[in-house]
TrEMBL record:
Key words of the record: DNA-binding, Transcription, Transcription regulation
GO MF entries: carbohydrate derivative binding; DNA binding; DNA-binding transcription factor activity
Gene3D superfamilies named in the record: Glucose-6-phosphate isomerase like protein, domain 1 (3.40.50.10490), Winged helix-like DNA-binding domain superfamily/Winged helix DNA-binding domain (1.10.10.10)
The protein's name: MurR/RpiR family transcriptional regulator
Transmembrane portions of the chain: none
Length: 273
């Protein structure tokens, strides 16, 4: 089986049109590789539909698809493609590509400005979203921010009542379907609190309460327990952090250098002990 083509088609199958799914199925069924004109006649689809299909699954053109289709299993790269390393390489690439396609640079910039303008930040996340919160705290604490990670339903509900005007709340929920999170964010409506939402669900109710919405990639078919599910959140955090470094370079650099010195001193003390 042509594992590489099967994986990239499978990862993008849900966003294909009905015509594109016909083209996809041809390759999933391991039919002979044909020229674009021959395939067009055989499937009764247009050349442009085939080209759009190639771009939809992340390839440049039909020639690239045919090349990969013919060679990915039989070539010297077969061992890599079928190995655990090849699997990780492919799926991380797909997640990053999807995140870059979905994330809005204007929303990333807005999130960066809100974070940079806030000193106290409350990071709300359940499960693996809370793991990403630790990375958020490490990055932004080094820039002088006070970051509180709140990672269980009861604590989030209590925190919603204690958040002060002027604080910033960052909510991370890829599914966007947590009822407890929706109830907690409802409490913030009466307060002058900005909310940055990181989610993969563009239809979540939480959007109605957010100042900024960063829509990132979803794990969907890749969520098999092998790929760390917090990766799309981490990608979004990295994008916001990178934007802050770009926008506020000089001030940020001073804070970063100072935090780096502190970290080195702590390491020296541990080594000394």
């Amino acid at each position: 089986m042509n594992d590489y083509i099967d994986l990239i088609i499978g990862a993008n199958f849900e966003k294909l049109t009905e015509v594109e799914k016909i083209i996809a199925q041809y390759f999933l069924d391991q039919k002979p590789a044909l020229g674009i004109q021959e395939l067009s006649k055989k499937l009764n689809v247009s050349n442009s539909s085939i080209t759009r299909f190639c771009k939809k699954i992340g390839l440049s053109n039909y020639k690239e698809l045919v090349y990969l289709y013919k060679n990915s299993v039989s070539s010297v790269d077969k061992e890599l493609v079928e190995s655990s390393l090849g699997y990780i390489n492919l799926n991380y690439g797909l997640i990053i590509k999807a995140a870059c396609e979905r994330l809005s640079i204007s929303e990333i910039k807005k999130a960066a400005m809100l974070i940079q303008g806030s000193r106290i930040i409350h990071f709300w996340g359940l499960g693996y979203n809370a793991f990403a919160g630790e990375d958020f705290k490490f990055k932004f604490s080094r820039l002088g921010k006070v970051v509180n990670i709140i990672k269980d339903k009861q604590s989030i509900n209590m925190a919603a009542h204690s958040v002060q005007s002027g604080d910033l709340v960052v909510i991370s929920t890829l599914s966007g379907n947590s009822q407890s999170m929706i109830e907690a964010v409802n409490v913030l409506k009466t307060k002058k609190v900005n909310v940055v939402l990181i989610t993969a669900n563009n239809a979540t109710e939480l959007k109605d309460f957010a100042t900024v919405v960063c829509v990132t990639s979803a794990m969907d078919k890749r969520d098999t327990g092998i790929i760390s599910p917090q990766i799309p959140v981490l990608l979004t955090i990295d994008a916001i952090y990178s934007e802050i470094l770009t926008m506020y370079h000089e001030d940020i650099l001073k804070s970063w250098v100072k935090s780096e010195q502190i970290l080195k001193e702590e390491k020296w003390m541990k080594d000394y002990e």
